[in-house]
Amino acid sequence: MGTLALGVPLLAGGPPGWVAYAALAVGTVVVGGAIVMSNSKPAERSRTNDRTTARPADCIPCRQWTVRTHAQGTDVGGTSASTIGSPPITLSVPIPALTGAANAHSTYALLTNTQQRVRAEAFAKALRWLSGCPSSGGFRGQKSFEVTGVRGGIRFDIDSYGPSNNFVT
């Protein structure tokens, strides 16, 4: 994670720097072998399979923390199932707020200029909220940042799942 600290100056470069920092964050974690990226729900396992499958010693009891950021609304194809977002980040340890912010920047970079302009205030609120999470003990659940004054359910969402809170220090 020391590589992420060295990349912080990229955040001052505006959207191009945000994308570069997000790529650095994802690349750092992928190269470290601690990330599993998936766009689908985890496959269900039978109880029989759980009892007979050996688990690695460093993964007892195989806990996973996941963070996903996505944009929703009629301008991205719908308000329920249609979203635009970066692949979720899944780690075997709680995910830091800085990694969540990098994922949010990656998602924001996927939007068109018009979609970004509409969500600019909601995105800024999401980043401020993420930066305050470590001091409040982190977060687990779903958090939406809605665009006020615009129809169509337009918002920026952050989902955080795992056996305990993400975004802690």
Characteristic terms for this protein:
169 residues, alpha+beta, 5-stranded antiparallel β-sheet, 5 helices, 20% strand
Kindly summarize this structure in a few lines.
This protein is α+β, with helices and mostly antiparallel strands. It is built from five helices and five strands. It has helices at 2-6, 14-31, 47-52, 97-110, 113-132, and strands at 65-73, 78-85, 89-91, 141-146, 155-161.
Any chance you could write out the topology, listing elements then pairs?
Blueprint lengths: L1 H5 L7 H18 L15 H6 L12 E9 L4 E8 L3 E3 L5 H14 L2 H20 L8 E6 L8 E7 L8
Antiparallel strand pairs: 1-2, 1-3, 1-5, 4-5
Helix pairs in contact: 2-4, 4-5
Determine the structural class based on helices, strands and strand pairing. alpha+beta
Order of helices and strands: HHHEEEHHEE
Give the assembly state of these chains: single chain
Strand proportion: 15-25%
Overall mean pLDDT: 77
**Main sheet specs:** 5 strands, antiparallel
Through-space gap between termini = 13 Å
Strand count: 5
Radius of gyration: 17 Å
Which spans of ≥5 residues are poorly predicted at pLDDT below 50? 30-57
Fraction of residues in helices?
25-40%
Shape: globular
Summed up, the helix count is 5
